[in-house]
């Protein structure tokens, strides 16, 4: 009998990858993570191989301006600690090329690989739709030698998605609210990629954001024209308390009080740092939180999840 294959030494360069590695039972194989990785709690003491020039405690508009300026120039938003990477000697590096605002750029990772000993393998996550996220589970499981665990995780995620889809199918079209799911408030950004799919699965009708396409700036005048039944706020990189800091900016905008969602008490805020903006295992948690917010009598909130707050 062949001895069991040793797990590779893994470095993760983004939070969703770290969550996925751990959900596959490979937490002990992680030797390095990004500066933003914060879940599960057991990874807190691992070496951080990335850093950023973005001040996350700055006002949201200042963060947006800095990101735009640096993306338009030559300075990188994030950088790799190449000396630390050499010391960690990973066999597998997990990164992404979906969004330059989310992690170290693909070009810098490729350049670093050429300078690392041992020729580590690179696994690149690039999900644009919900199905792509499920595909990444299987593909990373195969790359890390844990295909059985990946199939079990994927089956669990698919079953939970199917349960939400089945309950939402009971709704008549007239009971499906028009939903604006946004990921930034100053300036406004819609939530693209997989998020419009989540709205539909949860029993809503997305009025902004495009399936499989990046998030885009959403002019306030456009959101006023949409006049959604529900406004669901999941700010990228912000927890609930940080998002609430920006809420007065929204409330001061002309026409805020006239929005249907405001008049009817259907403005909800959730932890956008943990949910919706991370294409990993907790994307299904995101769906369940959204479904409960839209139709609480139809979609029970699973034990252990915190409901979105209504403001």
Topology at a glance:
Elements: E1 10-12, H1 15-23, E2 30-32, E3 50-52, H2 60-72, E4 78-80, H3 82-88, E5 92-96, H4 106-113, E6 121-125, H5 130-143, H6 147-168, E7 178-185, E8 188-190, H7 195-201, E9 205-206, H8 220-226, E10 230-233, H9 240-251, H10 260-263, E11 267-269, H11 283-294, E12 309-310
- Kindly report the CATH topology of the largest domain: Rossmann fold
Using the 3D structure, state the CATH architecture of the largest domain: 3-Layer(aba) Sandwich
What does the average pLDDT come to? 90
Helix content: 25-40%
Tally of contiguous helical segments: 11
Question: For this structure, what is the CATH class of the largest domain?
Answer: Alpha Beta
| SSE succession | EHEEHEHEHEHHEEHEHEHHEHE
What general form does the structure show? globular
SS strand fraction: 5-15%
Domain module count? 2
Q: What does the radius of gyration come to?
A: 20 Å
Explain the overall architecture.
- This protein is of the alpha/beta class.
- It has two domains: 10-126, Nitrogenase molybdenum iron protein domain (Rossmann fold, 3-Layer(aba) Sandwich), CATH 3.40.50.1980; 172-310, Nitrogenase molybdenum iron protein domain (Rossmann fold).
- Helix content is 37%, strand content 14%.
- The strands form three sheets. Strands 7, 8, 9, 10, 11 and 12 form a six-stranded mixed β-sheet that branches. It has a four-stranded parallel β-sheet with strand order 2-1-5-6, with helices on both faces.
- Helix 1 links the parallel strand 1 (10-12) and strand 2 (30-32).
- The longest helix has 22 residues, at 147-168.
- The chain is globular, with a radius of gyration of 20 Å.
- The relative contact order is 0.12.
- The model has no long low-confidence stretch (mean pLDDT 90).
């Amino acid at each position: 009998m062949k001895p069991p294959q040793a797990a590779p030494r893994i470095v993760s360069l983004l939070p969703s990858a770290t969550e996925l590695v751990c959900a596959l039972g490979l937490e002990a194989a992680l030797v390095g993570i990004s500066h933003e990785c914060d879940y599960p709690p057991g990874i807190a003491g691992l070496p951080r191989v990335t850093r950023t020039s973005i001040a996350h405690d700055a006002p949201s508009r200042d963060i947006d301006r800095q990101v735009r300026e640096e993306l338009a120039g030559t300075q990188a938003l994030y950088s790799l600690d190449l000396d630390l990477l050499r010391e960690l000697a990973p066999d597998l590096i997990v990164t992404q090329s979906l969004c330059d605002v989310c992690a170290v750029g693909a070009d810098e990772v490729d350049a670093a690989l050429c300078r690392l000993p041992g020729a580590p393998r690179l696994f690149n996550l690039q999900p644009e739709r919900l199905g792509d996220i499920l595909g990444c589970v299987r593909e990373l499981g195969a790359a890390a030698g844990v295909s059985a665990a990946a199939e079990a995780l994927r089956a669990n995620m698919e079953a939970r998605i199917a349960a939400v889809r089945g309950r939402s199918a009971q709704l008549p079209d007239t009971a499906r609210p028009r939903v604006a799911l946004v990921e930034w408030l100053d300036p406004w950004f819609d939530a693209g990629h997989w998020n419009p799919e989540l709205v539909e699965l949860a029993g809503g009708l997305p009025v902004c954001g495009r399936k499989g396409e990046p998030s885009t700036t959403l002019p306030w005048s456009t959101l006023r024209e949409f006049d959604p039944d529900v406004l669901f706020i999941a700010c990228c990189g912000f927890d609930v308390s940080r998002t609430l800091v920006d809420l007065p900016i929204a409330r001061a905008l002309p026409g805020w009080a006239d929005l249907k969602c405001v008049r009817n008490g259907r403005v909800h805020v959730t932890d956008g740092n943990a949910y919706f903006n991370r294409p990993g295992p907790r994307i299904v948690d995101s769906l369940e939180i959204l479904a409960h917010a839209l139709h609480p009598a139809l979609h029970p909130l699973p034990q252990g999840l915190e409901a979105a707050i209504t403001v």
